[in-house]
Write a structure and sequence with these properties.
Chain B: It comes from Streptomyces monashensis. Chain B: GO terms for molecular function: oxidoreductase activity. Chain B: Keywords: Oxidoreductase. The complex is a heterodimer of chains A (371) and B (485). By secondary structure, chain A is of the alpha+beta class. Chain A has two domains: 193 residues, 3-Layer(bba) Sandwich (FAD/NAD(P)-binding domain), CATH 3.50.50; 153 residues, D-Amino Acid Oxidase, subunit A, domain 2 (D-Amino Acid Oxidase, Chain A, domain 2, 2-Layer Sandwich), CATH 3.30.9.10. Helices cover 30% and strands 26% of the residues of chain A. Chain A is built from eleven helices and 18 strands. An eight-stranded mixed beta sheet of chain A has the order 4-5-3-13-14-15-12-16. Chain A is globular, with a radius of gyration of 20 Å. Chain A starts with a helix and ends in a 6-residue tail after the last helix. Chain B is of the alpha/beta class and 485 residues long. Chain B has three domains: 191 residues, FAD/NAD(P)-binding domain, CATH 3.50.50; 140 residues, FAD/NAD(P)-binding domain; 61 residues, Arc Repressor Mutant, subunit A (Orthogonal Bundle), CATH 1.10.10. In chain B, strands 3-2-1-7-20 form a five-stranded parallel beta sheet. In chain B, strand 1, helix 1 and strand 2 form a beta-alpha-beta unit. Chain B is globular and about 70 Å long. The chains are: A alpha+beta (371), B alpha/beta (485). The interface between A and B is large, with 70 and 54 residues. Strand 16 of chain A pairs antiparallel with strand 23 of chain B, so a sheet runs across the interface.
């Protein structure tokens, strides 16, 4: 997804773009994503600024590729179970409002107006009208189609070609070299491997998540609904399994239930404790789900960096190499903003957000853990 | 009795029954877990007792083998060594630290969860029918060949009065003769393979005098019931508005293309259609068993590469009931020895081993004869629905392949929704693979059947406490295989 967005904005900036992927379109984490375009789960700071920029760009794509990707500005609803959780959520929302987020407090009595089938015992919530959703695989495919870039799927990058002065000159693949004065690393969870091919370190690690998909239902869940503890889980550094229910209906009918987080490497095997916790949490929010059937579940690997911020921008250690990866669970939502910033960096313009917090070499100084 | 090692057998068809009996006879406690109300699976499907069938054997030509299996089942059950759990729909088998947990759904609505813990598991999950789409295939009155047979064997009812049996594969013969014997008018048996191809494979088939005799027997039955056989023909369309009224069939040339000018219409109210079988591999795949093509990979003892997990029957490669019996028997004997920590003695099952070798060679020969005719995928018109659950047409799949990069089954699913519905692609995957030009691979389906969220939420902890999720802190990325759903 991030690669597709980089291709789109780079092509729009007039660059000749080639997209190389060892798999098919959306073959990695994109195809396992829920397609969240969220501002609600981000605290004020650089990631929230990127999310707000991205949300505006997604809105602008809504009539073109966005429509084909089932773009839906449905809004998010964060709910709190207890008065204490509600107080914390309300304070969190106040900070977000100051940073430009639309966040409307919702009393317990008003919750059924927004979500008629929500559990009755909740303390209240906050409504985020800027939250939206896309079908991520369609989004990636349609952005790629719209940008007109040449697509090389099923082609594996095996090396990064560098000149005598260290500048990047293209990539080596299993089906021949591709020359280019600039290479964008949008390899997601495998972004660390690609960086290593260029001789630089980028500690991207996988954080596994399961999603449960139910049978198709009429629209019983209108917003993206999640419990306030989700935000704490997203920001958590724990390796152990954390789940907080995130429930949403889709244009196609099934309800999607996320989001577990655990650091177990690239282990794709089914974890019944994870899906059990997801199911229990979802039923806690929407009791009618108890009798609804899950048709499938699947795992994806979020690409995360130690400080939970993506790597975006030029790499001074390898001139000509740009990074656009490490977005953890927010890659679909943050893709448009990332693509725009990368295109601005590629064309020598001034990026409209400060890239300092996202600079790829930031982990060298802190002597952070080597994967 | 409680010291006996405990084997759970999933599936009570020929392979599962043979495996369960072989293990129970050798001192293993066996729990036979099956979705059916009675043992037998699809091949030995039994009529409901309430129907008071006077001659159920009329629909089965291996009645003596079935009696032997049924008697063994009754004997071991009575002795308390074997528990047969009927109506248990297994949706997942998971390894827990020192046991295997078999999770099933119970009840007519399958809304109640139940878990069986065992020391080892034999997966005898059978196969399911492959049906390739053609215009009109979703009309009421079009059924699968196996479905028609199940109605006949299990309910003693006919799917219709005038039936065309069509497609390819050895299943079509017993379906056509069974329907005719039960009183249906079989207007045609339409087989896309050619008899000449069968003869060309004669070396592989000649090793099977029993099978040849069976073929001759069916030929006699077809003649006696005056069933017209149209070899090297295919159904090109089914017709009707509310339900089926006729089919159009056409002849195929040597390359499998339709011969112009050969199309003709056959009135009928039922079309029983099938294009062979595919193995049920969901449970094995989720356990982490390696697959070979679309089947579970096993060694000479029918062991998968996951310790404590055996597999037998159609799940390890489609080859019919006789092969399943041999594989099940070997699996049961191997499991009985290995579970007690002893090394089995393969010469002791030499007869079953010879039968397995013979039947596998035979099914390999059949596979080359009964392949779908060339060009079947190109013949599907754009407006024909290929994924019935999500109502995705052939044209949509072709467009996604051409313009969006849907080059494999997973990306085709993500970009068209074909395979995302109730059946999770079991029905449409062969067609989608044909339309996108990618190989048919076994899909990853962690849930072998839909599971109520309430059952998931109420799953018991493993006996030794919940599996510690995420134990290895920051384990290095040791597997960078491309992500597949």
């Amino acid at each position: 997804m991030v690669g597709a967005a980089c291709a789109l904005y780079a092509a729009r900036a007039g660059l000749d773009v080639r997209v190389v992927d060892r798999g098919p379109v959306a073959g990695g984490t994109t195809g396992a994503g829920e397609g969240n375009l969220l501002v609600s789960d981000k605290e004020p700071g650089p990631e929230l600024e990127l999310a707000l920029l991205s949300a505006r760009l997604w809105e602008r794509l809504a009539d073109g590729p966005g429509a084909a990707a089932e773009y839906e500005p449905k809004g998010g609803l964060v709910v709190a179970r207890t008065p204490a959780a509600l107080a914390a959520l309300t304070e969190f929302a106040a900070g977000q409002r100051a940073a430009g987020v639309l966040a409307e407090p919702v009393s317990a009595a008003e919750l059924p107006d927004l979500e008629p089938h929500l559990a009755a015992d909740l303390a209240g919530g906050v409504h985020y009208p800027q939250d939206a959703q896309v079908m991520p695989a369609l989004a990636a495919a349609h952005l790629l189609r719209a940008c007109g870039a040449r697509l090389h799927t099923g082609r594996t990058v095996t090396g990064v070609i560098r000149g005598p002065d260290g500048t990047v000159r293209g990539v080596r693949t299993d089906r021949g070299d591709l020359s280019a004065p600039a290479v964008v690393n949008a390899a997601g969870t495998w972004g660390g491997d690609l960086a290593a091919l260029a001789g630089v370190r980028l500690p991207v690690l996988p954080r596994r998540g399961f999603v449960l998909v139910t049978e198709p239902l009429p629209r019983l869940v209108r917003h993206k609904v999640y419990a306030a503890d989700y935000v704490a889980d997203v920001a958590s550094d724990s390796a152990a399994l954390r789940t907080s229910p995130v429930v949403e209906g889709t244009a196609a009918g099934p309800v999607l239930i996320g989001a577990s987080r655990e650091r177990v490497g690239f282990d794709r095997s089914l974890s019944l404790p994870a899906v059990r916790a997801l199911a229990a949490g979802a039923i806690g929010l929407f009791p009618f789900l108890e009798r609804v059937r899950a048709l499938r579940t699947y795992a994806g690997f979020r690409p995360y960096l130690p400080d939970h911020l993506p790597a975006i921008g030029p790499d001074p250690r390898a001139p000509g190499l740009f990074h656009a990866c490490g977005h953890e669970g927010a890659g679909i939502g943050l893709a448009t903003g990332t693509g725009r910033l990368i295109a601005q960096a590629l064309t020598g313009g001034t990026p409209e957000l400060d890239l300092t917090p996202f600079r790829p070499e930031r982990f060298d100084a802190d002597g952070g853990d080597t994967p | 009795m409680s010291e006996r090692v405990h084997l759970a057998v999933v599936g009570a068809g020929p392979a599962g029954l043979a495996g369960a009996l072989a293990a129970a006879s050798r001192g293993v406690r066996v729990t036979l877990v099956d979705a059916g109300d009675r043992a037998g699976g699809q091949f030995y499907r039994q009529p409901a007792p309430a129907l008071n069938a006077r001659r159920p054997q009329a629909l089965h030509h291996q009645w003596r083998t079935w009696r032997r299996l049924a008697d063994g089942l009754a004997r071991h059950t009575e002795a308390g060594y074997l528990t047969h759990l009927t109506g248990h729909h297994v949706w997942c088998v998971q390894r827990e630290s020192d046991s295997l947990a078999v999770h099933a759904l119970l009840g007519p609505e399958q809304e109640e969860g139940v878990t069986v813990h065992a020391d080892a598991v034999l997966l005898a999950t059978g196969g399911y029918e492959r049906v390739l789409p053609f215009p009109g295939w979703t009309l009421p009155g079009v059924v699968t060949a196996g479905g028609a047979q199940a109605m006949l064997k299990g309910g003693l009812v006919l799917p219709g009065r005038t039936v065309v049996v069509a497609g390819t594969g050895p299943l079509l013969l017993p379906v056509a003769t069974g329907l005719a014997a039960a009183g249906a008018r079989v207007a045609a048996l339409v087989e896309s393979a050619s008899p000449a191809a069968l003869l060309r494979r004669a070396p592989g088939l000649a090793a099977q005098p029993g099978k040849l005799a069976e073929g001759v027997w069916y030929a006699g039955l077809l003649a006696r019931h005056r069933v017209p056989v149209l070899a090297r023909h295919t159904v090109v369309a089914a017709h009707g508005t509310d339900r089926l009224t006729a089919v159009t069939v056409a002849a195929l040339d040597r390359t499998g293309r339709i011969r112009p000018g050969t199309a003709r219409r056959i009135p009928c109210d039922t079309l029983a259609v099938g294009h062979g079988m595919l193995p049920h591999t969901d449970l094995a795949e989720t356990l982490g068993c390696a697959l070979a093509g679309t089947a579970v990979r096993v060694d000479a003892e029918q062991r998968t590469d996951v310790p404590g997990v055996w597999a037998a029957g159609e799940a390890t490669g489609v080859g019919g009931a006789a092969l399943a019996l041999a594989e099940g028997h070997i699996a049961g004997r191997s499991a009985a020895a290995r579970m007690r920590g002893t090394v089995p003695d393969p010469p002791a099952w030499a007869a079953a081993d010879r039968a397995r070798t013979r039947h596998r060679a035979f099914s390999t020969a059949l596979d080359t004869v009964y392949a779908p005719p060339a060009g079947w995928a190109e013949r599907i018109p754009d407006d024909t629905v290929v994924c019935r659950c999500e109502e995705v047409t052939a044209g949509e799949v072709r467009t996604a392949a051409r313009t969006l990069g849907a080059t494999d089954l997973r990306s085709a699913k993500l970009l068209t929704r074909a395979g995302m519905g109730w059946c999770q692609g079991r029905m449409c995957a062969p067609a989608v693979a044909g339309l996108t030009g990618c190989p048919l691979t076994a899909a990853r389906r962690p849930f072998a059947r839909p599971v109520p969220l309430g059952v998931l939420a109420g799953l018991p902890d493993a006996p030794d406490g919940p599996k510690a999720p995420g134990a290895p802190e920051d384990r290095a990325a040791d597997d960078s295989s491309p992500a597949q759903q």
